[in-house]
Write a structure and sequence with these properties.
By secondary structure, this protein is α+β, with helices and mostly antiparallel strands. It contains five helices and four strands, in the order H-H-H-H-H-E-E-E-E. A hairpin with a 5-residue loop joins strand 1 and strand 2.
């Protein structure tokens, strides 16, 4: 004889919907409503599928209300960055004296090779190279 089919109560449905919306793992929800995980997924499929979306919609509604309330600059900025694609841009310009382009800097590369006893064996200094008449 097969065991009786699990029939959830409305209170259990509310509990599952709330816990799933909060991000509680399904194994923990199953323990609270006293069923197995497969039974939870079968009996509460709608609640599990919609709870997170409903919770996100409620939070978005609250954020929207905060962002459109005069004086809540942080919520407004967050909304515009997250939803409207706004970004903070910093323009950094580098120039030399009187706005002229900066002069190229001379770079000298020094390669040091050490022996097994950490004694300096060789030092090579490489001056800047010229590539097609320009400093590299």
């Amino acid at each position: 004889m097969a065991p009786p089919r699990y029939t959830p109560t409305e209170e259990q449905r509310r509990t599952v919907r709330t816990m799933a919306a909060y991000g509680i793992p399904q194994d923990a929800i199953a323990r609270v409503v006293r069923c197995s995980e497969p039974t939870l997924r079968r009996a509460f499929r709608f609640e599990l599928d919609t709870a997170v979306t409903e919770a996100n919609a409620r939070v978005a509604q609250c954020l929207f209300q905060q962002a459109t309330t005069p004086g809540n600059i942080a919520a407004t900025i967050f909304w515009l960055k997250a939803r409207a694609g706004w970004r903070e841009k910093q323009l950094v310009e580098v120039s030399g004296p009187n706005g002229a382009p900066p002069e190229p800097q001379q770079v000298v590369v020094e390669i040091r090779r050490f022996g097994d006893d950490d004694e300096l064996v060789e030092t090579t200094r490489t001056p800047p190279r010229l590539i097609e008449g320009k400093r590299a």
